[in-house]
Specification:
By secondary structure, the chain is an alpha/beta fold. The chain has 2 domains: 235 residues, Aspartate Aminotransferase, domain 2 (3-Layer(aba) Sandwich), CATH 3.40.640.10; 124 residues, Aspartate Aminotransferase, domain 1, CATH 3.90.1150. The protein has 14 helices and 13 strands. It has an 8-stranded mixed beta sheet, sandwiched between helices. Strands 7-6-10 form a 3-stranded antiparallel beta sheet, with no helix packed on it. Strands 11-13 form a two-stranded antiparallel sheet. α6 links the parallel β4 and β5. The longest helix has 19 residues.
């Protein structure tokens, strides 16, 4: 029996045509034809002032830290239940990370605990839209405005998702997307930074172009380009963008395909009292980035993952909370109770889900998982 993998990178079949065209255009380095087309698509879909394709979601976060001029001694608030890049991008600039607990329903940053975490050193809040479900952005933005703070949306998992009708990533000062192979829309490695403040656009272009005003030169705004500020090489190769472009054009189709799998899982697993299933607020439109189950304890989760693996189905847990890691203890501190984060770190497991997952594989995941869950009722 064939193994069911946890993830398969999305592939439409048309990507080869665009990659070939990129090669034949004789420009496969940064800011080629397809990089620009992808940026245009993202700007149209999100309404952002500027989209800039970068080589990873991590790069988008690092650019955000540079754009906000984060300095040693500054504090940045983020959840502990997230990927390391959310925190590391700001640690690289010398910031102290302040970890706040997550909500027990959406598993997003608990906006009700932000006020107590803010100090005179706080510069930014970085909410993470877990599983493509929007954080409580109205409240987060209100808190930020009242305290003169920046907000950077880590929307790595949320391409195509919305909060109260607004695209995630395009609500705060800056938004960060990932196009890693595990994401709904992929270029293998890749990402984008959405610059939602027009006054930051030129600085973002400079940072992305190694600290030069090269973008202004190619627009004819200066007669030669030169080094003007700090920056790095955040450009993706244009062949990566060529792979990404047809997927961005078919984003709604890809997400709808994943949603059918998500809804099939959800209709089944809601019958079991022994696990908790994802909660989606009515005003959030998610992109079916993942489907997870929350078990009662670590042992049950461990046994479930083992049982599924014995049946050739790959299920995985997610983050080890950053505040409990060696680097998290070194570069950060916790603000308040972290009980939900600690619990989720021990009990959440993700099921296989990807674009064009075969119905027979979906059914097999459900059948095998149900056998385990029947024993834990």
């Amino acid at each position: 029996m064939a193994k069911i993998l946890f993830n398969r990178a999305p592939f439409l079949g048309t990507e080869f045509k665009y990659i070939q065209d990129a090669i034949e255009s004789a420009h496969i380095s940064g800011d080629g034809k397809y990089t620009k087309l992808c940026n245009e698509l993202l700007e149209q879909r999100t309404g952002t002032a500027k989209s800039l394709l970068v080589h990873s979601g991590t790069a988008a976060l690092e650019m955000s830290a540079l754009l906000l001029n984060i300095k040693p001694g500054d504090e940045v608030i983020c959840p502990s239940y997230t990927f390391v890049s959310t925190a590391n991008a700001f640690v690289l600039r010398g910031a102290k990370i302040v970890f706040v607990d997550i909500r027990d329903d959406t598993l997003n940053l608990d906006e009700r605990k932000l006020a107590a975490a803010i100090t005179p050193k706080t510069r930014a809040i970085v909410p993470v839209h877990y599983a493509g479900v929007g954080c409580e952005m109205d409240e987060i933005m209100d808190i930020a405005h009242r305290n003169n703070l920046y907000v950077v949306e880590d929307a790595a998992q949320a391409v195509g998702s919305k909060y109260k009708g607004r695209p995630l990533g395009a609500i705060a000062d800056l938004g960060c997307y990932s196009f890693h192979e595990t994401k709904n829309i992929s270029s293998g490695e890749g990402g984008a930074i959405l610059v939602n403040r027009p006054d930051m656009v030129e600085d973002a272009e400079i940072i992305r172009e190694k600290g030069t005003n090269r973008s202004r030169f190619f627009r004819g705004q200066v007669d030669k380009y030169t080094w003007v500020d700090v920056g790095s090489s955040y450009l993706p190769g244009d062949m990566n963008a060529a792979y990404l472009y047809p997927q961005l054009m078919k984003m709604d189709e890809i997400n709808a395909n994943r949603m059918r799998t998500w809804e099939k899982y959800d209709a089944n697993f809601k019958q079991f009292d022994s696990v908790k299933t994802p909660f989606i607020p009515k005003y959030c439109q998610h992109n079916a980035h993942m489907y997870y189950l929350r078990f009662r304890d670590l042992d049950t989760r461990t046994n479930f993952i083992k049982y599924m693996a014995e049946n050739d189905i790959m299920c995985v847990f997610h983050y080890v909370p950053l505040h409990s890691s060696p680097a998290g203890r070194k570069f950060g501190r916790v603000a308040g109770d972290m009980s939900v984060t600690n619990k989720i770190g021990d009990t959440l497991v993700r099921l296989p889900m990807y674009y064009n997952m075969r119905a027979e594989d979906q059914n097999r995941v459900i059948t095998v998982a149900n056998k385990f869950l029947e024993k834990t009722r």
